[in-house]
Amino acid sequence: MPAPENELKTALAAGEIQFGCWLGLANAFSAEMMGQAGFDWVVVDGEHGPNDLRSILAQLQALASTGAHPVVRLPVGETYMLKQMLDIGAQTVLVPMVESAAQARQLVRDVTYPPHGNRGVGYSMTRAARFSGIEDYGTTADAQICLLVQVENRKGLAALDEILTIEGIDGVFIGPADLAADMGHMGDIAHPDVQTAIMDVLARIRTAGKAPGILSTRDEMTIDAINAGALFVAVGADVVLLGQAARALAAKWQATKA
Fold first, then answer.
1. pLDDT recorded at residue 258
2. Which H, E and C letters describe 123-152, residue by residue?
3. Among 45, 171, 185, 232, which has the highest number of CB atoms less than 10 A from its own CB?
4. Which domain covers residue 152, as residue numbers?
5. H/E element holding 174?
6. Angle CA(64)–CA(243)–CA(97) in degrees, nearest 5?
7. Cα separation of 181 and 85, whole Å?
8. 192-207 vs 219-228: helix axis angle to the nearest 10?
9. Which of 48, 69, 116, 185 is catalytic?
């Protein structure tokens, strides 16, 4: 019995646009709700969300019953963290702040079993292998792991062409907020220079045969990104959606006091 198919990886390889949503509430109950909302994929955010290994595990378990493919974003691309995330069942990982080809190559080794990588071979104990239920996990898992790296500053952009040549990198995600800040436009991702850089990079990624990704909550930017070649596109975040709806509701009824 082989490792289960990574449907997001399959869709991206086929050039199919996949819409997603960010999960920052760090809660299995809300993650399950968001997973049932109709998105193709959701990001369990371990970088900016208050998550740890156990809370991410709980969300993976909750999302397993939904139609949304879980992507786990690590706080940093550390070897031991990648090993843990894969062992608890993440098949797709998103690594922030990748700034060099050497770093990207190490990430590929981290998510790959020996002899080509250095992922620890302890799958008989893991949720990823259904606790020894997937007999062929060790020989089939590598093909179903999807490694997405984030390029989100000028240093990363300078290394992008080399990163795009690396086998084992499935997609490159552009971080608009960090890129804007690094370009001197903190909080202004709509700045023309930032938008030009983003759309150019998305096109370069697609041309290189990798899947380009982005987070955009502005329809105009989302459409531009898709036209530039973006394939995995996050269009919202649970924290933002809840906050906006709550503030609007409170304001509506507070206004009746006047």
1. 77
2. HHHCCCCCCCCCCCHHHHCHHHCEEEEEEC
3. 232
4. 7-257
5. strand 171-174
6. 65
7. 29
8. 30
9. 48
Low-confidence ranges of the chain (pLDDT < 50): none
Catalytic residue status for 48: yes
d(CA 211, CA 202): 9
- Would strands 92-95 and 211-215 be described as parallel, antiparallel, or unpaired? unpaired
pLDDT at 144: 98
Q: What are the counts of helices (DSSP H) followed by strands (DSSP E) for the chain?
A: 12, 8
State the burial class of residue 127 (Cβ atoms within 10 Å of its Cβ: 0-12, 13-18, 19+).
middle
What local confidence, expressed as pLDDT, does residue 198 receive? 97
Please tell me the distance from the alpha carbon of residue 178 to that of residue 162, in angstroms, as a whole number: 21
Q: How many other C-beta atoms are found inside a 10 Å radius of the C-beta of residue 119? A: 22
Query: How many domains does one find in the chain?
Result: 1
Indicate which CATH number applies to the domain containing 193: 3.20.20.60
- pLDDT at residue 226, as a whole number: 98
In a domain, 89, yes or no: yes
Residue type for 84, please? Q
Yes or no: say if 160 and 172 are a contact pair by the CB < 8 Å rule. yes
Tokens of 106: 């190490």
pLDDT in tens, 12-43: 999 999 999 999 999 999 999 999 999 999 99
Alpha helices in the chain (DSSP H): 7-13, 28-35, 53-63, 79-87, 101-110, 137-140, 154-158, 160-163, 176-182, 192-207, 219-228, 238-254
The answer as to whether 2 is a domain residue is no
Question: In sequence order, what are the residues at sequence separation of 6 or more whose Cβ sits closer than 8 angstroms to the Cβ of residue 80?
Answer: none
Rounded CA-CA distance 204/19 in Å is: 20
Least Cα distance to 99 among 162, 53, 142 occurs for 162
